[in-house]
Amino acid sequence: MSSFNGINTALTALRTQRQGLELAGQNIANAGTEGYTRQRLETSSIGGSPVAAFWSTPNKFSTGQGVQVTSVNRLQDAYMDARVRSEHERKAATDTNHDVLVDVERVYNEPSDNGLQAQLTDLWSGFADVADNPGDLGSRTQLLTRAQSVASTLNAASAELAGQYTERRTQLVNNVNDINAAAKQLASLNEAVVRAKAAGVSANELSDQRDTAALKLTELTGGQLTRGADDSVTITLGGSNLVSGSTSRDLKVTNGADIASAGADPVTLKWVDTDTVATGAGGKAGALLNGLNTVLPDQLARFDKVANALTTTINTANAAGFTKAGAAGGALMSGTTAATIKVATTNPADIAASASGTQALGGGNADAMARLGSKSGGADEVYRTNVADIGMRVRAAEQAATTQGTITNQVDSARSATSGVNLDEELTSMITYQRSYEAAAKVMSTVDSMLDTLINRMGV
Q1: Which pLDDT does position 58 carry in this prediction?
Q2: Which of 8, 100, 305, 351 is the most exposed, having the fewest neighbouring CB atoms within 10 Å of its CB?
Q3: Hey, how many other C-beta atoms are within 10 angstroms of the C-beta on 273?
Q4: Which GO terms describe its cellular component (predicted)?
Q5: pLDDT tens digits, one per residue of 335-356
Q6: Residue 418 has what DSSP assignment?
């Protein structure tokens, strides 16, 4: 073995330990960088030539030729990364679903001293006041005012739900714009990673950026991720490619312009290039679609049911009585939806308080109408059912969001333990590389001294 072999061994050690120090510094520098995956230096010893030849066959007592860096690997767990994407997608869906339901619950404003239930109670009390004093114009006027308050509250609820629908649809459009931008970014990073690996240069940081973009896209769409032989990633939505290699496709929001048309013409995601329906949306987009096509229209239908029950019961009951003039009662309310319901008359004399056409100041019918609040299938029962239903839905959505948040945090922590930067561990690695570098430098210095003695001092 050449006497200069020791210098080469020490040199390879110096280079390797220096690269290890630089890598530890890179890890420490990115300890707080979102999506950064810790990297580790992989090394192997350098042996003799694998090809047998006279001048290339090492001495059987050869100590090797040093060390070499074989790769710089990302400490990545494919299973854990898949769990992170899956749990983040579920968290985006449960959080969005909870937000939609909480906004709907605010429309009810129950329990409250001025909510619809309190106004209905006041309305029935107004009928009782008229029954007690049928000839009092003030009681009759007050009754119509209370009826108008109920109608206005139902009108406002319908308008609020329509407004929420418009805002959520705009949110979905913005969400789809984010999806299209993220898909383009992922396709670009796909191309960069593949080119970098083909050129034999490190693509670790690019891969981190790509994984972050893929996670965001999964949260937004619920798309499924697969990896190709060239390490490019593919995101599919309902079996169709959203991102494949360096190519991405755009989505658009169509139909369901307003809440009134949502039932017959639901909001739909479509592929821009083929104008066909994009199925299988999950994550935030899927939750928004559910809110637009199911939750909000259903809640509006529930308020419509209250309005219809109120109009039907009051008008039916008023038609059974007689006015102060002895005429049969007419309609006090008009409209059968929350948006259209209103008081049909401004004349207090139209209230058919009497149960008999010959008793102008009788209050028997008004007394019967005062008991409509407890009528089976009446507006109060329908409304109380709606309030209980939205309360249970919000509670269930809150529990789901809280549970999913806990699970997501646990998975993130598990991934961080595997792939995140541990400063204590990196400091330990730095000390190890530093001491190894100092030892290699000492080896080189010692070999240099030995060669100096051999070359310059032999025979002196």
Answers
A1: 57
A2: 8
A3: 8
A4: bacterial-type flagellum hook; extracellular region
A5: 999 999 999 999 999 999 998 8
A6: H
> Amino acid identity of 141?
T
**Measured between alpha carbons, how far is 379 from 310 in angstroms, rounded to an integer?**
5
Q: How far is it, in rounded angstroms, from Cα 158 to Cα 300?
A: 6
Give the pTM: 0.87
Residue partners of 352: CB distance under 8 A and separation at least 6: 318, 319, 320, 321, 322, 323, 328, 329, 330, 365, 366
- In tens, the pLDDT along 379-400 reads 999 999 999 999 999 999 999 9
Are 87 and 411 in contact, with CB atoms under 8 Å apart?
yes
Residue/partner pairs of 385-389 with CB below 8 Å, 24 or more apart: 386/108, 386/299, 386/302, 386/303, 386/305, 386/306, 387/108, 387/110, 387/117, 389/302
- Distances, alpha carbon 4 to alpha carbons 7, 78, 348, 443, in Å: 5, 45, 115, 12
Please compute the mean of the pLDDT values over residues 197-222 and round it to a whole number.
92
The whole-angstrom separation of Cα 423 and Cα 30 is 10
Closest to 277 measured CA to CA, from 293, 261, 301, 299: 293
3-36, pLDDT tens digit by residue?
A: 567 788 888 888 988 988 988 888 898 888 888 9
Q: How far is CA 193 from the centre of its chain?
A: 28
Residue in 235, 217, 233 with CA at minimum distance from that of residue 175: 217
Instruction: Judge whether residue 2 has pLDDT over 60.
Output: no
Token digits for 112?
Answer: 């409250």
pLDDT of residue 340: 96
Alpha-carbon gap, residue 269 to 290, rounded angstroms: 12
pLDDT-derived band at 448, boundaries 50, 70, 90: confident
User: What residue has token string 């690019």?
Assistant: 206
Residues 305 and 393: their CA atoms lie apart, in Å, by 19
DSSP three-state, residue 301: helix
Instruction: List the structure tokens of 340.
Output: 């259209």
| Other C-beta atoms lying within 10 Å of the C-beta of residue 104 | 23
DSSP 329: P
Helix (H, G, I), strand (E, B) or coil at 459: coil
Question: Which sequence spans correspond to the domains of the chain?
Answer: 5-75+421-457, 83-410
User: Rg for the chain (alpha carbons), in Å?
Assistant: 38
222 token code pair? 């619920």
Nearest to 342 by CA among 191, 151, 69, 130: 151
